[in-house]
């Protein structure tokens, strides 16, 4: 996994070669357009991340803002982390259906969607999934998951 030391999104983008910056910029624009109010864009864990600020939700397990979506340019591909898909089986099912409709097989981990080009993503469906979980809903999902583990 490639990790950046960039402190800002601008610095992160500036580090990328132009062709890779263009891919990240296109996905980033779709994420920003779909992102519900209350999430903040910044850098976290060496990638671009949209989080719930600690001022709103300080009770995180790692004392970091609660991550909702993250985007990274890795060595051989790109990664889009969709924590809503990881936390909600309905979102996972919808994402798999969107890939099937696109005629592509997803390259996924638990929350990570790996891709080599924007055309590999069902970007409209991903935007819809991102838009579908507001801050309060995501906090409730996280608290429910934590209560099951604790």
Give short descriptive properties of this protein.
Aspartate Aminotransferase, domain 1; 6-stranded antiparallel β-sheet; globular; alpha+beta; 150 residues; 6 helices
Strand order of the largest sheet: 1-2-3-4-6-5
Strand content: 15-25%
Please give the CATH class: Alpha Beta
What's the helix count? 6
How many domains is the backbone divided into? 1
Main pleated sheet = 6 strands, antiparallel
Name the average pLDDT.
93
CATH architecture label: Alpha-Beta Complex
Strand segment tally: 6
> In sequence order, what are the helices and strands, one letter per element?
HHEEEEHHEEHH
The amount of helix comes to 40-55%
Radius of gyration: 15 Å
Task: Report on the architecture of this protein.
The chain has a 6-stranded antiparallel beta sheet. About 45% of the residues lie in helices and about 20% in strands. By secondary structure, it is α+β, with helices and mostly antiparallel strands. β5 (about 105-110) and β6 (about 110-115) form a beta hairpin.
């Amino acid at each position: 996994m490639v990790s950046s030391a960039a402190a800002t999104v601008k610095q992160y983008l500036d580090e990328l070669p132009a062709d890779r910056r263009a891919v990240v910029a296109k996905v980033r624009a779709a994420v920003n357009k779909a992102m519900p109010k209350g999430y903040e864009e910044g850098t976290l864990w060496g990638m671009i991340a949209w989080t719930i600020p600690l001022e709103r939700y300080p009770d995180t397990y790692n004392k970091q803002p609660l991550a909702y979506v993250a985007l990274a340019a890795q060595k051989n591909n790109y990664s889009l982390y969709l924590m809503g898909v990881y936390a909600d089986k309905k979102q996972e099912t919808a994402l798999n259906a969107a890939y099937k409709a696109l005629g592509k097989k997803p390259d996924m981990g638990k929350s990570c969607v790996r891709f080599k080009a924007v055309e590999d993503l069902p970007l409209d469906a991903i935007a819809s999934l991102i838009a579908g979980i507001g801050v309060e809903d995501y906090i409730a999902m996280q608290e429910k998951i934590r209560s099951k583990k604790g």
